[in-house]
Amino acid sequence: MALIHFIQKQKYTIGIWKIEEHEFNAEFSKVLHPNYHNEIQNYKNTKRQWQIHASKLLFEHLIPGEKLALENKKPIITNSSKHVSIAHTNDIIAMIIAKFPCGIDIEPSNRDASKIQHKFLNKEDFTSGENTKNLLKNWCAKEVLYKIKGDSTVLFSDHLVVKKNGSLFSGYCNHPKIKFNSTIKILNFENYCLAFNIDFKDIV
User: Fold this and answer.
1) Could you tell me the CA-to-CA distances from 31 to 39, 41, 85, 86, 204 in Å, in that order?
2) Which one, 31, 90, 91, 171, has the greatest CB density within 10 A?
3) What does pTM read for this prediction?
C-alpha cells in the first residue's frame, strides 16, 4: 500500500492511498485504530476490509499519534478539534483532515451520473445535466456537502445546491435545521474526479 498523492495546506491536508490487496493484515488492523470499524474481522466483503485497513494506514500516515474512530457512522478524530472525511472507490482511498468540518469524494472520471441525477439534481444547481462531466462534478460536490454533517435527514435534491464560482464551486445546505456554505474544489486526478471543501461557514 502506498501514498500516491499528497496536498498540504495551512488549514487542511489531503492524502490519496492506493490499496494493494496482498498487504492487508487482519491482525494488525484489529489493533490499529480499533475504534474505527472495530468489527472489521466480521465483514464478509474482503474488499471492504481492505478499504478500512487502508483508511487506517492513510490516517496514521497523515496524522500520526491521533486516534481515528466512528461516531454515528461518521469518522472522527478522538479528543481533537480537527475533522476528517474519507472516500473510496475501486482500489483508491482519499482522505481530508481539516481545521473545519469537511467532506471529500472521489469517483472514476468515466462514471455516468445521469442514471441517478433524479436523486441529487435540482433546478438551482450549476448544471441541468446536459453535460456528463458537469453532472459528475455536481454529484461529487454534493457528496462533499453531505459528508460535512453526515445527517441522514439532509436530502441531496432538496437541501443541497452547487453553484459555479470561477474555477471553484460554492456549495449550500438549506436544510431547515442545518444551514451552511462551503467552497468546493474539484480536481482531475489521474482517471478520477476528486472533490473536497476548502472552508466552512455556518449560516445563522
Assistant:
1) 12, 11, 21, 20, 42
2) 171
3) 0.95
CA distance 58 to 130: 37
DSSP state of 170: E
- Are the CB atoms for 161 and 146 separated by under 8 Å? no
Q: What radius of gyration, in Å, describes the C-alpha atoms of the chain?
A: 17
Please tell me whether residue 178 adopts helix, strand or coil conformation. Answer: coil
Residue 8: strand pairing partners: 13
What three-state secondary structure class fits 147? helix
Contacts of 136 (CB under 8 A, 6+ apart): 107, 109, 111, 113, 193
* Average pLDDT along the chain, 204 residues, taken 10 residues at a time: 89 94 79 89 83 94 96 95 96 97 97 95 94 96 98 97 96 97 96 97 92
Q: Do the beta carbons of residue 60 and residue 32 sit within 8 Å?
A: yes
Look up the CATH architecture of domain 2-99: Alpha-Beta Complex (3.90)
